[in-house]
């Protein structure tokens, strides 16, 4: 399922905890709101609305490094494959901290894995994953708080590094995508951090997907104008502030060529 080079990709988010679809504010587990007990049905609704990618996160896996949503993600992948025909692609994140777990996720049907904590401090896992699976199958999370890319589910005291250092590691390792989240904006519907996104897009030679604070078609358009190739949208969809099908159509109508910065 090829996408034209001019596509700006909207990735609806499915954040999982205890088998439910939830949203957190600023990644805080004490600020959790549940939206659905049927993640596969949510994925089917996104597919019907015209999504070509979905972004799936195992939240407890991100925090602890122990994945617990394997069966739920398998059910989502089954929806994505549509009985054999690949109808949309699945980007999986959360708890992917070693080569064994990453490989298992790809075997289970993930089209792209997102490495976060494992890309901090050491690029061995990242490089090995790119070598085995190719750049298009590998993204790296730049989850940024106070100028640092942090891991470990963003818990207080989580280890971090200056984001330019991690961005250089992403480029040098040959990963295909950088997923940038402004943590202080995440889940609050306050708008994206356009200054941060523009800085990273300018310095990055790989496509940048934005996340955090996006609430409207206008926000999506400004994110694209900042140089991003796509955006992850979560709470605005679940709160009914943003219609996914309408957003996809609007961004398609107003699309402009993005050249090599487009999401592969």
3D structure, described in words:
The chain is an alpha/beta fold and 264 residues long. It has one domain (9-253): Aldolase class I (TIM Barrel, Alpha-Beta Barrel), CATH 3.20.20. Helix content is 34%, strand content 25%. It contains ten helices and twelve strands. An eight-stranded parallel β-barrel has the order 1-4-5-6-7-10-11-12, surrounded by eight helices. Helix 1 packs parallel to helix 3 (70-81).
- What share of the residues does DSSP label as strand, in percent? 25-35%
Helix-strand sequence: EEEHEHHEHEHEEEHEHEHEHH
Spatial strand order of the main sheet: 1-4-5-6-7-10-11-12
Low-confidence stretches: 1-6, 256-264
- Coarse structural class: alpha/beta
Assign the CATH architecture. Answer: Alpha-Beta Barrel
What kind of sheet is the major sheet?
8 strands, parallel, barrel
CATH-derived topology: TIM Barrel
CATH class value: Alpha Beta
| Number of E-state strands | 12
Shape designation: globular
Keywords:
eight-stranded parallel beta barrel, 264 residues, disordered N terminus, 34% helix, 12 strands, TIM Barrel, alpha/beta
Give a quick rundown of the structure.
The protein has 264 residues and is of the alpha/beta class. Helix content is 34%, strand content 25%. Helix 1 packs parallel to helix 3.
Task: Explain the layout of strands and helices.
Layout: E1 9-17, E2 20-25, E3 28-36, H1 39-48, E4 53-58, H2 59-64, H3 70-81, E5 89-93, H4 99-107, E6 112-115, H5 124-133, E7 138-145, E8 148-150, E9 160-162, H6 163-173, E10 177-182, H7 194-203, E11 208-211, H8 217-225, E12 230-233, H9 235-238, H10 244-253
Parallel strand pairs: 1-4, 1-12, 4-5, 5-6, 6-7, 7-10, 10-11, 11-12
Antiparallel strand pairs: 1-2, 2-3, 7-8, 8-9
Helix pairs in contact: 1-3
């Amino acid at each position: 399922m090829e996408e034209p080079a001019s596509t700006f990709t909207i990735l609806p988010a499915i954040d999982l905890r205890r088998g439910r679809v939830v949203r957190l504010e600023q990644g805080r587990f004490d600020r959790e709101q549940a939206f659905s007990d049927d993640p596969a049905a949510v994925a089917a609704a996104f597919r019907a609305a015209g999504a070509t990618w979905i972004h799936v996160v195992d939240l407890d896996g991100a925090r602890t490094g122990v994945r617990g949503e394997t069966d739920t993600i398998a059910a989502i992948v089954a929806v994505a494959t549509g009985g054999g025909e690949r109808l949309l692609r699945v980007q999986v994140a959360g708890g992917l901290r070693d080569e064994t777990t990453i490989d298992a996720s790809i075997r289970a049907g993930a089209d792209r894995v997102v490495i976060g904590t494992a890309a901090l401090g050491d690029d061995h896992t990242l490089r090995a994953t790119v070598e085995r699976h190719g750049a298009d199958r590998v993204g790296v999370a730049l989850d940024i708080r106070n100028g640092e890319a942090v891991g470990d589910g963003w818990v207080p005291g989580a280890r971090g590094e200056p984001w330019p250092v991690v961005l250089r590691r992403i480029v040098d390792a040959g990963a295909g995508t950088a997923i940038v989240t402004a943590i202080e904006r995440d889940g609050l519907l306050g708008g994206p951090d356009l200054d941060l996104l523009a800085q990273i897009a300018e310095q990055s030679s790989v496509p940048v997907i934005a996340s955090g604070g996006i609430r409207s078609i206008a926000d999506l358009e400004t994110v694209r104008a900042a140089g991003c190739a796509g955006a992850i949208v979560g709470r605005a969809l679940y709160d009914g502030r943003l219609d996914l099908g309408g957003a996809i159509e609007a961004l398609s109508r107003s699309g402009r060529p993005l050249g090599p910065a487009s999401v592969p």
